[in-house]
């Protein structure tokens, strides 16, 4: 399976990608996770990315495209991949087209998870993430079994810096201006499927699996 997941910040891309990666036995590639792990390690890339992420802006295309190119050239991607959060601009999408052409492979699908903006703001305020293993929780919709302790690796979960309300509102603006045009881009290529993502996590998972099976 070679899949892109599109959607607003907090639409549930990461939540669904984890399930799908297990299901199809392919790597889950999240550009957001790559940036956050570089920020945590204090690398030059992390320092640069942080300047943009903290403001709710996109990291520049030249930086982001290089990272994905490197990642896709690794051997575990030969059997497929789930791209979560990339591409986010038309330029990124065009560069991805060339990368896939060079690899002599084609995308199977582009999954668009649609969630209204009003729901997004509510979701982000309750999101908690594990800084050690990256697992994502929600105080109301997906609580940890023990309060504030990651179910998987038992580290303390935290709130993401960019989940503050004013940053979320800027991230939504960025999404509408720069990423929404990709819905038409992939729609015209015929590979797009859209799923409503405002239902419960397990209901969305069911709809995603159904939609991916159909195309
Ligand atoms: P990134 O980490 O990709 O952030 P994002 O796209 O804003 O997406 P999120 O991770 O916030 O949300 P998600 O859709 O994965 O939702 P989740 O499953 O966690 O990127 C961060 C930043 O890095 C960007 O702002 C940008 O600066 C930079 N960046 C990344 N990629 C880039 C690129 N290609 N180019 C340039 N810059 C880039 O779910 C959210 C919450 O809701 C969780 O708490 C979850 O438990 C809950 N939830 C999920 N589904 C449901 C449901 N159905 N019902 C109820 N709750 C749910």
**Which percent range describes the beta-strand content?**
5-15%
Low-pLDDT segments:
none
Give me the CATH fold name of the domain at 2-115 and 179-214: Rossmann fold
In the CATH hierarchy, what is the superfamily of the domain at 2-115 and 179-214? P-loop containing nucleotide triphosphate hydrolases
CATH arch. level architecture of the domain at 2-115 and 179-214? 3-Layer(aba) Sandwich
Output the strand order for the largest sheet: 2-3-1-4-7
Which structural class do the helices and strands define? alpha/beta
Total strands: the figure is 7
Name of the top-level CATH class of the domain at 2-115 and 179-214: Alpha Beta
Separate helix tally: 9
* Principal-axes shape call: globular
Topology as a string of helices (H) and strands (E): EHEHHHEHEHEEHHEH
- Report the helical percentage: 40-55%
Rg for CA atoms: 16 Å
Mean pLDDT comes to 93
Major sheet: size, sense and barrel closure? 5 strands, parallel
Question: What small molecules does this complex bind?
Answer: BIS(adenosine)-5'-pentaphosphate
Detailed description of the structure:
This protein has 215 residues and is an alpha/beta fold. The protein has a domain at 2-115 and 179-214: P-loop containing nucleotide triphosphate hydrolases (Rossmann fold), CATH 3.40.50. Helix content is 50%, strand content 14%. It is built from nine helices and seven strands, in the order βαβαααβαβαββααβα. Strands 2-3-1-4-7 form a five-stranded parallel sheet, sandwiched between helices. It has a two-stranded antiparallel sheet with strand order 5-6. It is globular. The model has no long low-confidence stretch (mean pLDDT 93). BIS(adenosine)-5'-pentaphosphate binds next to helix 1, helix 2, helix 3, strand 6 and helix 9.
